[in-house]
Structures are given as C-alpha cells and as structure tokens.
Amino acid sequence: MPFVNKTYRTIPEDWFALYVLFHQPHTFRRYIIGSPTVWWDDAAILQYERDFAPNNAGLSAIAFMSVGSRESEPMVAGFQEMVKVMQDRQYNNLELITHIFEDETHISVIPATISRGLRAVFT
C-alpha cells in the first residue's frame, strides 16, 4: 500500500503486537506474532521491553511467535533475540510458545503461522 505508507506513518503488524504487549499488556490476552521485525526502527522494541520489565514482573498473556527458517538473517536473528529476552525475563503468567518453521520464507510461513498460532493460543 504505497499511498498509505507514503501518507501515514505505518509500522509492521507484528511489531504492533509486541508494542502493545509491552505498552498496554492488558489490551489483549492472546497474541499471534509472525515473523517479528525486531530489527525495525533500530530495534526499538527491545528497548521497550527493557523499559517495561523493571516495573512489570508479569504478562498475563498467551503469545505464539514464529518465523520461517528461510527468512532474512536479520528476521531470524531478531526473532531468536526476542525469544531469548522474553524467556530469560521469566515473566509471570506469560505462556510463550515459539516455533521456527523449516524451509519457509517470509511469505510461505504466513499460513503455517496462522494455523499453528490459532491452535496455540486458543487450546
């Protein structure tokens, strides 16, 4: 959507999910985060998590986060870094489910993420 991107400031939808998780964590209970662009905006999402953590021991959420193994190196590395940060933080009441889909690209991973994500957060 070139017109929208040119006219308005937009952000990747997966980045939005992580942003909400660390700024308004009670907005949603379930999150499906596919191919998070952790690197976007100079990896600002990692700083948001660092700012959030000292005053928040818990995150009452179920989050499914995934990436395709054949996505770009920054995408896979960012995913792995975000997973490590969240696991190391050991947030109370956060059920974090992660998956790397083998042989999937940024586009081909979408159906797998939706299918597995829905099952993960609703069962």
From TrEMBL:
InterPro entries for the chain: AB_hydrolase_fold
This protein's name: Uncharacterized protein
Organism per entry: Microseira wollei NIES-4236
